[in-house]
Specification:
By secondary structure, the chain is an all-beta fold. 0% of the residues lie in helices and 52% in strands. The chain is built from no helices and eleven strands. A hairpin with a 5-residue loop joins strand 9 (91-98) and strand 10 (104-106). The protein is globular. The mean pLDDT is 97.
Length: 116
């Protein structure tokens, strides 16, 4: 099982980034996918969730209206489009695949830094 995030980097406030998470080794279309983030000295925070069929999404209040989660089950990939980025969005962003307590997988994370 692998979840490989990409697309992180340094961006100025107000800018945009798109994160990708490529999955392999499991039946991607059967899993709820989530993006989490963790800033230095803070607990890991749930950012966005998308159901297995992509029909429903949910967002943390802090990113609602600025971030969009989507998935392509044909490509086994989940995305996080981030716009109007703020310095407080700086964190390591993690991809998570969840089916149940036993089948719960994590990526290695990608760093997003928002700074001028």
């Amino acid at each position: 099982v692998q979840l490989v995030e990409s697309g992180g980097g340094l961006v100025q406030p107000g800018g945009s980034l798109r994160l990708s998470c490529a999955a392999s080794g499991f039946t991607f279309s059967s899993y709820v996918m989530r993006w989490y983030r963790q800033a230095p000295g803070r607990e890991r925070e749930l950012v966005a969730t998308i159901t297995s069929d992509g029909g429903s999404t949910n967002y943390a209040d802090s990113v609602k209206g600025r971030f969009t989660i989507s998935r392509d089950n044909a490509k086994n990939t989940v995305y996080l489009q981030m716009s109007s980025l703020k310095p407080e969005d700086t964190a390591v962003y993690y991809c998570n695949a969840w089916r149940n307590a036993r089948y719960n997988y994590w990526g290695q994370g990608t760093q997003v830094t928002v700074s001028s």
